[in-house]
Design goal:
CATH topology: Rossmann fold
Strand content: 5-15%
Number of strands: 7
Strand order of the largest sheet: 3-2-1-4-5-6-7
Shape: globular
Radius of gyration: 19 Å
Length: about 280
């Protein structure tokens, strides 16, 4: 047999629209500079219809760049998705409200007909939780954990039931953090929430994997999204910790999220994947 007669490997999912006819749900996707918006747009480009949720921010809380752009939070993201020829649905949603989440999910199935991918991206904003552990307010700690952990649980449970009923596989991707891999001072609530999310990912993956459903977490490092506000993300001190020498881009994180929803990633399951420029390498 000559080399010319050996068939080349085939990569059928790297071309065209591999997610055509599928429906994705992304929480926390209303800001211009955000992982959620970037992931929504990329999934739509790959063929998926996309449901986006947000907290219903008041326009007076929008950063200057959003005010200048006439931004309308999740409605603007939905317009972008529709501009790509996909269907979109929006919802103001408190992911910590189990009853509201259940009503929302039922509405998604009624309107979109199915659900195939869930991206748990909602997280509490940085702020009062980033203090020494002796000073963390109990309600703040509870809120950070409830948004990240309970929100992901409520939605993932409903999504798992739907995927099992559809019996066509699917993906759950939770946005964790390098804070779910290594502890740091003045970060107790966020560390706790993300370590929990990574453990949930492993458990769900082992339960759902036999049904063709993958469950993974994405662990970004320093990504200057709107959550950072006006904080310096390029200081010499911060860059010294990152072998890549720069902050990450939310588009880069979106590419990983989208890949984990494509058929090409079917053999990746139960992982918490770092995307941090090499900062965390021991886990």
């Amino acid at each position: 047999m000559t080399s010319s007669s050996v068939p080349l490997p085939e990569f059928p999912y790297l071309e065209g629209e591999p997610l055509l006819g599928k429906v994705a749900i992304i929480t926390g996707a209303g800001r211009i500079r955000s992982i959620g918006r970037a992931a929504a747009i990329l999934l739509a480009r790959l063929g998926a219809d996309v449901v986006v949720t947000g907290t219903g921010r008041s326009p007076d809380r929008y950063p200057d760049e959003e005010k200048a752009a006439g931004w309308r939070d999740i409605e603007s993201v939905a317009d972008e998705i529709r501009g790509l020829g996909r269907r979109s649905m929006t919802a103001v949603l408190d992911v910590t409200d189990a009853e509201a989440v259940e009503i929302f999910f039922g509405n998604v199935i009624d309107e979109m007909g199915r659900a195939d991918f869930l991206v748990n991206n909602a997280a509490a904003p940085m702020g009062a939780d980033r203090v020494p552990m002796t000073e963390v307010d109990r309600d703040v700690f509870r809120w950070v954990v409830e948004v990240k952990v309970m929100g992901a649980f409520y939605l993932s449970q409903l999504m798992a039931r739907q995927l099992l009923a559809q019996n066509e596989g699917g993906s759950i991707v939770s946005i964790s953090s390098m804070a779910g891999k290594t502890g740091s001072p003045n970060n107790l609530a966020y560390n706790a929430a993300n370590f929990a999310l990574n453990g949930m990912t492993q458990s769900m993956a082992k339960e759902l994997g036999p049904h063709g459903i993958t469950v993974n977490a994405v662990c970004p490092g320093l990504i200057p999204t709107a959550r950072w506000g006006d904080k310096d993300t390029t200081s010499e001190e911060k860059m010294a910790l990152i072998p890549a020498g720069r902050p990450g881009k939310f588009e880069e994180v979106a590419e990983l999220i989208a890949f984990l929803c494509t058929p090409s990633s079917r053999y990746i399951n139960g992982q918490a994947i770092n995307i941090d420029g090499g900062r965390v390498t021991e886990h």
